[in-house]
Design brief:
CATH topology of the largest domain: Tetracycline Repressor, domain 2
Number of helices: 10
Distance between the termini: 53 Å
Number of domains: 2
Structural class: mainly alpha
CATH architecture of the largest domain: Orthogonal Bundle
Number of strands: 0
């Protein structure tokens, strides 16, 4: 009941404007009950967050362009969904949000990577996540000036080859 009310309120009002009081009113409970069960607005948001990364079908993409396409997709995804950025910000200090982020990436990115290259797909997906999550953290949360100043095309040009290597390299030479 609380989660349903929170999902609706966050969707309607966004994270910043949604309040614990409004969510509690929507759920017909006292605000202290929301805090008792979830601890904070960030923890409630993390529990209510249900994100689809909307990774497109890559089966018709040239094998050498997959990294570029994935980076472009994730950059677009971060830019159009403030709630996903809030989840990332929350995941740096909140275990519930971090668990949610891990689940989202493992359940949605790993199958895409496995379809492209099934060899060691879990590790490959993890390495790709380091790039897209690191990019999002630096660009949208920390707002590092050189990263924020880069155009969409520049980000894709810099990170695309790295993601491509994760997708089709045979692994590190030791």
């Amino acid at each position: 009941m609380i989660l349903a009310a929170a999902k609706q309120r966050f969707a309607e009002s966004g994270f910043e404007r949604a309040t614990i009081r409004a969510i509690a009113a929507d759920a017909n409970i006292d605000p202290s009950m929301v805090m008792r069960y979830f601890g904070s607005k960030d923890q409630l948001f993390a529990a209510a967050a249900d994100f689809d990364l909307q990774i497109p079908d890559m089966s018709d993409v040239d094998q050498e362009q997959l990294g570029t396409r994935l980076v472009a997709h994730f950059l677009d995804r971060w830019e159009r969904d403030e709630a996903l950025v809030v989840l990332l910000r929350s995941s740096t200090t909140n275990d519930e949000a971090a668990q949610r982020m891990r689940k989202i990436f493992s359940s949605q990115l790993r199958p895409v990577v496995a379809a492209i290259n099934p060899t060691d797909a879990l590790r490959r997906a993890g390495l790709i996540a380091t790039q897209v999550l690191g990019l999002a953290l630096c660009r949208y949360v920390l707002r590092l000036p050189p990263v924020v100043a880069m155009s969409h095309d520049e980000v894709v040009a810099w990170l695309g080859p790295t993601v491509q290597r994760y997708l089709n390299a045979s692994g590190p030479v030791m």
